Amino acid sequence: MPKLILVRHGQSLWNLEDRFTGWVDVPLTDLGREEARRAGQKLAGFEINVAYTSTLARAQETLKVMTETMGVTLPTIRDQALNERHYGDLQGLNKARTAEKYGKEQVHIWRRSFDVPPPNGESLEMTAARTLPFFERCILGDIQQGKNVLVVAHGNSNRSIVMSLDKLSNEEVLALNLGTAIPVVYDLSPEGEVLSKEVLS
């Protein structure tokens, strides 16, 4: 049965600085590269046929470090549909200072809710509206051909995929947080139904 492996990128510079990143292209930190190496080590025994990633450098660099660690070269598709959610006016702002300005509850809603976007940005619902059609058309298309697929993307693009696969409600997804560079391995049926799930933390 085909496997789908989802990985959020390793720690980025703005993760370290506790800033909203969104579509701003920031590099990995040394810790982020080490996290990517550890993810590659955890996946060293897996046969993977194709990789998908976003158009943002932190995801692409994570994938590069992972495949180098695994000693493999994978055909790779890069697509904006897998980009992080766009944080709009919050991009570049420090999260703690933003919470002081707008209140912790409001910032938590902007970060975690399904359908409330930050000012001039995307909600998770809006992110899913671009991520899931691409996932269903392209990534599940590979799964249906029996391929094992690695997706290295972002907290929210991957959250939208997990929400769909795990059939989470709008309320349940509030508690979903994906750690940096921790592989989530699904065994899927050719139709894309989840048969098993393992988090390689």
Automatic annotation (TrEMBL):
Entry EC number(s): 5.4.2.11
Keyword Isomerase tagged: yes
Catalytic site positions: 9 (tele-phosphohistidine intermediate), 84 (proton donor/acceptor)
Catalytic reaction annotation: (2R)-2-phosphoglycerate = (2R)-3-phosphoglycerate
GO BP terms in the entry: gluconeogenesis; glycolytic process
PROSITE patterns per record: PG_MUTASE
Listed name of the protein: 2,3-bisphosphoglycerate-dependent phosphoglycerate mutase
Biological source species: Fimbriimonas ginsengisoli Gsoil 348
Species lineage: Bacteria, Bacillati, Armatimonadota, Fimbriimonadia, Fimbriimonadales
Chain's gene name: gpmA
